[in-house]
């Protein structure tokens, strides 16, 4: 089965068995409705057990699912009159980042997001969703345009990270990311960021400085991939599962740490099961978020963003930790 995940195998096998029995029943005079009903009840219980107790590595697998909806999928379902803009006016266009103007509930907005492919040909075109510097400069150009014309900015984050190749470094990859962080911090229009897949390192953060940051339930947001962390910590990328469990990269963990404002629930099994339904869930959170931010003045938007990031990383030491300390 295309895109079958390891932890889903029992569910897939049971669904296959039910389908076989239904086909056999329709092709013969044998009534197996009782057996099918029992198996369907068993399937429902199995799905509840599996999807209600997902481990961090399970969520990493879902976030990387080849059929997981992309930025363009959500643009199609959530926005109207999308007009894509191209080029950074310095070097060229980067297909790994999609950016343009659209209408959201009749309100003009600027939409920017990482874009990966769903097959080999498209992944090559999109550079597997890993942007070059011109991609980030294109995004910043559209952000400054949005600020000029008072349009809210909506960013979809879904990348393993910025492209680490020689050409990208020669064209100023680090500077382009740093410039985005600097400029986004002071934008005077609402900026809403939604992590829809993988949010990897500075490549994700370059579109992630917003007033509100939301995450799909099975997305990840991290400074490095679990494989990379495992290779650095234990010299073995094969320990990625162990790294994922200790890195706090899932939506529930990041919500608890105050990095994410709201977790957007996913349908059972992941967003790829029903794009339209998942888009509707995003729309609900996005609309609420936008209504709240549009009430703020220019200065209040900048200050709210500043305070949000200032609080990240704060912690308290319990009084008991000082017992016995001199």
Automatic annotation (TrEMBL):
The keyword Lipid metabolism applies. Keywords: ATP-binding, Cytoplasm, Fatty acid biosynthesis, Fatty acid metabolism, Lipid biosynthesis, Lipid metabolism, Nucleotide-binding, Transferase. The keyword Signal does not apply. Its EC number is 2.1.3.15. GO terms for molecular function: acetyl-CoA carboxylase activity; ATP binding; carboxyl- or carbamoyltransferase activity. GO terms for cellular component: acetyl-CoA carboxylase complex. Pathway: Lipid metabolism; malonyl-CoA biosynthesis; malonyl-CoA from acetyl-CoA: step 1/1. It comes from the Bacteria. One of its GO terms (biological process) is malonyl-CoA biosynthetic process. It catalyses: N(6)-carboxybiotinyl-L-lysyl-[protein] + acetyl-CoA = N(6)-biotinyl-L-lysyl-[protein] + malonyl-CoA. Residues 38-292 form the CoA carboxyltransferase C-terminal domain. PANTHER family: ACETYL-COENZYME A CARBOXYLASE CARBOXYL TRANSFERASE SUBUNIT ALPHA, ACETYL-COENZYME A CARBOXYLASE CARBOXYL TRANSFERASE SUBUNIT ALPHA, CHLOROPLASTIC. Acetyl-CoA carboxylase is a heterohexamer composed of biotin carboxyl carrier protein (AccB), biotin carboxylase (AccC) and two subunits each of ACCase subunit alpha (AccA) and ACCase subunit beta (AccD). This is Acetyl-coenzyme A carboxylase carboxyl transferase subunit alpha. It comes from Bacillus timonensis.
